[in-house]
């Protein structure tokens, strides 16, 4: 007995160690024969990284080596399996969650300070009294001005934990001294529904920019409001929508399809299939639906378009969509980073996969997308290449194709006046936004009593503003730009950007839609079907 007591701690220690070792090796797919075998592929990678860490002649950041290694592995998979470094995870998570914690402002890093473009309705800044045009110069004693600050550093100082306090010092034009504001950070929504308004007495319009956690709630709110205004038809705009959560797309489709209609099914490498069906919860099953797509509509956007097209519900309008039919699952890697790995393919109700081929590698995959553009496909539906072996038929006999995106029922070519290279360049570089901000700074008060709807319906940009913008651009760029060929289009962008900074993105979208040929086509289709 004394002998047993003496060695009891040792025996227990060995048992615990063995348990930890075995537990570390166990996973649900392991057989008893594999329990104590080594995975030479994993060991090789770990040994190499350790070898570099301990013996390499120079100091090396092995974290960066791991990042490169992970990206190298994913390069050999499909184009949509991606690595998200830990420094990007918060931004990516916020975007897909649909909100973040902050003070609720849209801002420019204008010249050397933070210039408030607009406060978020109901957010901490609006409640505290911060106004458009204010310059935030300090937060909790830290300077927020100077030419060395970038947007990332500024956001870190303005974001924080929920209900945390921040003291701001603000310069306001016309005030002799800096103003003090004390705020509590709160949840700030990242809108995924850009606009919801009536195009005609019966036709409502909803634009979705991505499928985030909050998208269905935003969409349903917009749909309910439009129905209360008399909408019996909906134009659902999914142009430039790269996708997002599959389940959110299914919820939105469910609003339009009758109970038990197949929305999509997914299949993994083991052949396991999961089907999603419509429920009896849809509030717009009897209404007409038009789905607007283009070459940048991908993933969840294509799920919506494909489900409705294959069920002979509504009309798909626009240009062939991107062609992404893969489903990703996010896996936390334990250090704040993550991998989004493709785990299955999705198929539309007729059984078609709309994923573009990627067997020749990532470069070839993305080059094929640009080849579509160069072929003239965006201008002529006859240039769309289809594969006869990937032909499918809907219940009512309509022919649809798999293998590379959703082909619309009604083709609308790209508008090269509103989407020309010069205007796209000026928009993306921020020139239009900066110019409009400076114009507002000269005379912001004149818009004080102008309602959003009055501005949309009645305000006109005059020629003087267009010429002033032209001079503004030519001072800041090497090449001389004139707007002779698209004078009216520039007016439309200036008016829309003014509306965005005064009233919000929904006003911006509504104004741009006034010169949108795809919107015009939908309105004509709606009138023609009455």
Automatic annotation (TrEMBL):
Question: Domain PDZ: where?
Answer: 89-144
Organism name: Thalassobellus suaedae
Which Pfam family would be a valid example here? Peptidase_S41
InterPro entries assigned to the protein according to its UniProt record, in alphabetical order: ClpP/crotonase-like_dom_sf (IPR029045), PDZ (IPR001478), PDZ_sf (IPR036034), Peptidase_S41A (IPR004447), Tail-specific_protease (IPR005151)
Q: Per the UniProt record, which residue ranges are transmembrane?
A: 7-28
Query: Which keywords accompany this UniProt record?
Result: Hydrolase, Membrane, Protease, Serine protease, Transmembrane, Transmembrane helix
The UniProt family comment states: Belongs to the peptidase S41A family.
Entry keyword annotation includes Protease: yes
Protein name listed in UniProt: S41 family peptidase
